[in-house]
Design goal:
By secondary structure, this protein is of the alpha+beta class. It has 3 domains: 289 residues, no CATH class; 114 residues, no CATH class; 58 residues, Arc Repressor Mutant, subunit A, CATH 1.10.10.410. The chain is built from 17 helices and 16 strands. The strands form 4 sheets. Strands 2-6-7-10-1-11-12-13-14 form a 9-stranded mixed sheet. The chain has a 3-stranded antiparallel sheet with strand order 5-4-15, with no helix packed on it. It has a two-stranded antiparallel ribbon with strand order 3-16. The structure holds zinc ion. Zinc ion (ZN) binds next to helix 2.
Amino acid sequence: MSSESKKIKIGLEVHCQLTSLKTKLFCNSPSDYREKPPNTNICPVCIGTPGSLPVLNRNALNYATMVASSLNFEIMSHMIFFRKNYFYPDMSKNFQITQYDRAGGVPFAINGYILLNDGRKIRLGRMQLEEDPAKISYDGTIESSSETYVDYNRAGIALIEIVTEPDLESPSDAREFLNKLSSILEHLNVLDLGLEGSVRCDANISHRGGKRVEIKNISSFKEVERALNFEMTRQKSLASKGISVSQETRHWDDVRRITISLRLKEEEQDYRYFPETDLVPVTLSETFIEKINHDMPELPKEREIRFQQEYNHSSEIARVLVKDKYLADYSEKAAKESIAPREVGILLAVNLPPFLNEIGKDLKSLDVAPEHFAELADMISKGEVSRRSAKTIFLEMLKTGQKPRNIFDKKGLDVISDSKSIEDIVTKIFKDNPEAVKDAAKDTKAINFLLGKIMQETQGRVDPSIATKLVKQKLSVQ
Ligand SMILES: [Zn+2]
């Protein structure tokens, strides 16, 4: 980490919906609000009509406890809910039921942490359970729209809020942190990251001890690094011109990929928090927390270690594979089908990502079965194909979804192991390239040219070490 980037301080406030719940946090309205006509997925409780009473979703408590535990939080055994009062159309009852209270109330959990790959600890100050507000939308952008629309279908969905200390030192730290957090939540099966709006993030960033700028409305984890990079560059460029950064709240426009000023920081808003007396205080017994811990699914860190033991992956490969639960599950299916699980890991963790980057897709959208990776890994480990041919097959398999063996048969990519055949090829190359042969006899570096010709001629089906040996032998008798 360079000293320059250490002068950057980033903190995140992450909101994650508990998408695996069937119903909202305090009522029986379904939690699958997406794709429904606006304002149809509601009931008196979630829009707060007078006389309606909230009832806490018990499963939300189970899930939140699992999350808190897996993020190393100290769970508060006694907690109450608060009303956070504010006047804004995304909460029709003019308050949000949440847990945090600046006057000293208790959140769900405090003092958690996530470790980055290099061992740095990112402290998580607190975690709380709260309801999601309604969704506000605009015609076009927030600046140009003449209308504001509000859809209460989302109001009341269970959210957890996780707040980090400003321990992140660069936008890429933020990405790594969010990858780890997502993988944990996905392994707990409480969150489907693929659902639109299931995670949102606010970020604050300051440069060289300057004023803190808050970026609101980052609508996916992938956008966070982008928004932070933009803001870091903006702040550095202001500093280089001698202009000081204003403390302000900025909006991330993910279409134009810029941050725009929303408001300069006023006084801290007074939300007049007071206890939500319609809900009873919650007590989590030790037995309850122990049971949750006992039934906890396998977490990424444990899985990483198991992958190394069970499939002989290197620690680096295992780490890449568990970064994303889908990839981890996929790799495990492939590894189980293969006699060479270590090769499977290399194909998926090393060879696949550059291909996906290039075509701008993810593994989910590829029409390739895990068994195909297993088959190719087996062919490599049995020496049926050279590394170079394997690469050809690999790319063809990813592009067409065909089985590796079919591609292999069709292209005739079997390794030429018969020494007489290899000798014939070498003889032919020597005959075709007399100048290069002369050069190679004088300068061993020029041998590579002849080797390249042999590989070209055979589409890489010859073992390079055998070819090198034969070329050297032939040169010595010239
Ligand atoms: Zn409802």
